[in-house]
Specification:
Blueprint lengths: L23 E13 L4 E7 L2 E7 L5 H8 L6 E10 L13 E12 L16 H6 L1 H4 L3 H23 L3 E2 L17 E3 L7 E3 L5 H9 L4 E9 L11 E10 L3 H20 L8 E4 H8 L12 E3 L1 H4 L5 H8 L3 E7 L8 H12 L7 E6 L2 E4 L7 H10 L7 E7 L1 H19 L9 E5 L4 E4 L4 E4 L26 E6 L2 E8 L4 H10 L4 H14 L7 E7 H8 L30 H7 L9
């Protein structure tokens, strides 16, 4: 039977320092480690604040010593004793390593079974097992530190935006379904049989309505839900730092958010970030880096050689240009000797995963030219390509000829993959930039129509508005994404606040007046009662913390995450519900055929 605490806790395990020497303390926590050296016994006691060494020696009562010897890993204890200095035995790797507690009393509050994996910093158990026993995994210092960091980022966000005049206002979790892009999670209504709520993919429409309501600076740490395919930086439920502002333009939104990011880096990582950040138009980002979220920590920029090879004797290049496609490449400068032929073949296969047909390569090594295509071109063509890339000895050129979308995707991914393999990315190197002037529309080949690249409430740039009907591919948006080391931290836009412009936008993406009224009637009605110019953005909180904590996946910064198939291994959800519940909701399950 578990004992009661013999005394009230007076200190946290991780809080004791030399200044506490001589104090009588009572600690509570879990047994992280136990070491019996015969006449000397040590217990490392852990709580959320850290670990402290508890000592039982030949000066303590024999019964107390035997009791301490009976405890095992993860037992929950209450220990009282005197803080004393460890002297030459100090452990510099522990925050409390300069002191220990000489025990005078001990209560075993709860016993524990042997855990299914070792609860240590470097845990070798597979992720599936750790997620099944997530409550044990969360005891590890590594995860605890990530969740503490997440807490700090949330607190700093609330404090910073409060200091800058923002009000934190909650928006509904049960809302109207307006499927655009990702699928909604639907919630059946018992009262309104046959009708459904949706879980919000974002608070977008509500925060715009708050601007109409006159609350001209809103923020919220908002829960969002999207029924989409998952990967390392996606979850079916995630959290945004969400905000909206009235009477602003792009510069206003960017300025207040650069202040927030500077504060986060200084207060969380003690890193000074210079502002203003670099701004780069979308077109330039794609041309130079093949991505709308470029990683600026290394070079290997993309070079367009379409004009150089348009009359090439190498059919792959010439035919690509003749079909209206593009030929571009990257130069890996100064590393050719570190990339073997086998490695080049591996990079070729890597590019194919981005739908490239293959990668043509040219390597300058010790005065020699090695290449997959040089025997198919003339000497002048070869020299023209080398000159176009300004290539020198020990450089490697990789070229892709295909549709622009494929070329950008494959070369953009290749430059990042090569940088990773070569180890050229410095740790704690933070490169931030704003990518601006996104296309307002993108063409959906499956639906055979233009769709909104971000969402249908994004405002076009003033000088491009006349092209909405005649040349939608030319229209740029007042949209902006904040990028950190090749990862999108967040993004937003200035919204459409003109009723006629909003109607034109809906028409351009194939939403009829009737459909717009059915989906967004409440917003359109609100806009007839005086709407301020407004804009905002949202950060992916999980992704932001993942990068700050230098973790490979957002699962490492979420207390209870889902896995790839959107299930939670610990509680085994989603799960079936009783038939009675389905009947109340008017739902009948149709089993899918095997």
């Amino acid at each position: 039977m578990a004992e009661k605490m013999h005394a009230k806790r007076t200190a946290k395990c991780g809080a004791l320092r030399k200044s506490d020497v001589g104090n009588e303390v009572t600690l509570c926590g879990w047994v992280a480690k136990r070491r019996n050296l015969g006449s000397l016994l040590f217990i490392d006691l852990r709580d959320v604040s850290g670990v402290c060494q508890i000592t039982f020696d030949d000066t303590v009562d024999k019964a107390l010593f035997e009791k301490a010897n009976s405890v095992r890993g993860e037992y929950v204890l209450c220990v009282s004793g005197t803080v004393r200095e460890r002297g030459s035995d100090a452990n510099t790797k522990m925050a409390t390593g300069a002191v220990e507690v000489l025990a005078s009393n001990l209560s075993i509050l709860s016993k524990a079974e042997t855990p299914p994996f070792e609860i240590t910093g470097e845990c070798n158990a597979n992720e599936e097992l750790r997620l099944k026993y997530r409550y044990l995994d969360l005891r590890r210092a590594e995860l605890k530190e990530a969740l503490v960091m997440r807490h700090r980022v949330c607190k700093l966000a609330r404090d910073y935006y409060d200091e800058n005049g923002f009000l934190e206002i909650e928006t509904p979790i049960l809302c109207k379904s307006t499927p655009e892009g990702a699928r909604d999670y639907l919630v059946p209504s018992r009262v309104h049989n046959g009708s459904f709520y949706a879980l919000p993919q974002s608070p977008q429409l509500y925060k715009q309505l708050l601007m109409v309501s006159g609350y001209d600076r809103y923020m919220q740490i908002a829960r969002c839900f999207r029924d989409e395919d998952l990967r390392a930086d996606r979850q079916p439920e995630f959290t945004q730092i969400d905000l909206e502002m009235s009477f602003v333009d792009v510069d206003d939104v960017i300025s207040v958010n650069e202040g927030f990011i500077k504060k986060i880096f200084k207060d969380v990582l003690n890193v000074e970030i210079e502002a203003p950040f670099l701004r780069m138009p979308y077109r330039e980002a794609m041309d130079r880096f093949g991505s709308d979220k470029p990683d600026l920590r290394f070079g290997f920029e993309i070079k367009d050689i379409t004009d150089v090879v348009k009359n090439s004797t190498f059919k792959v290049f010439a035919e690509a240009v003749a079909c209206g496609n593009t030929v571009r490449g990257i130069k890996v400068d100064g590393y050719a000797d570190k990339i073997s032929r086998k490695e080049i073949d591996s990079l070729n296969e890597f590019a194919k995963t981005y739908r490239a047909k293959g990668v043509a390569w040219l390597k300058l090594a010790n005065g020699e030219i090695l290449s997959s295509f040089v025997k198919f071109i003339t000497e002048d063509e070869k020299n023209a390509i080398i000159s176009a890339f300004d290539a020198k000895d020990n450089d490697l050129i990789l070229i892709v000829a295909d549709k622009p979308k494929t070329v950008f995707a494959s070369l953009g991914a290749l430059r990042c993959e090569i940088a990773k393999r070569l180890g050229v990315i410095k740790k704690n190197d933070f490169k931030l930039l704003w990518v601006t002037e996104f296309p307002l529309f993108e063409y959906d080949d499956e639906e055979n129509r233009y769709v909104a690249m971000h969402h249908p409430f994004t405002s076009p740039m003033d000088e491009d508005a006349d092209f909405i009907e005649s040349a939608p591919d030319k229209v740029r948006a007042k949209a902006y994404d904040i990028i950190l080391n090749g990862v999108e931290l967040g993004g937003g836009s200035i919204r459409i606040s003109d009723e006629d412009l909003q109607k034109r936008m809906f028409k351009a993406i194939g939403i009829s007046e009737e459909e717009a009224r059915a989906k967004f009637g409440y917003l359109l009605d609100a806009f007839t009662f005086g709407v301020p110019p407004h804009g905002g953005m949202a950060y992916g909180l999980d992704r932001f913390v993942m990068l700050l904590a230098d973790k490979p996946s957002i699962r490492d910064v979420i207390a209870f995450p889902k896995v790839q198939n959107a299930s939670e291994l610990m509680t085994e959800c989603p799960s079936e519900v009783p038939e009675k519940s389905l009947v109340e909701l008017g739902i009948e399950i149709s089993k899918k055929e095997e």
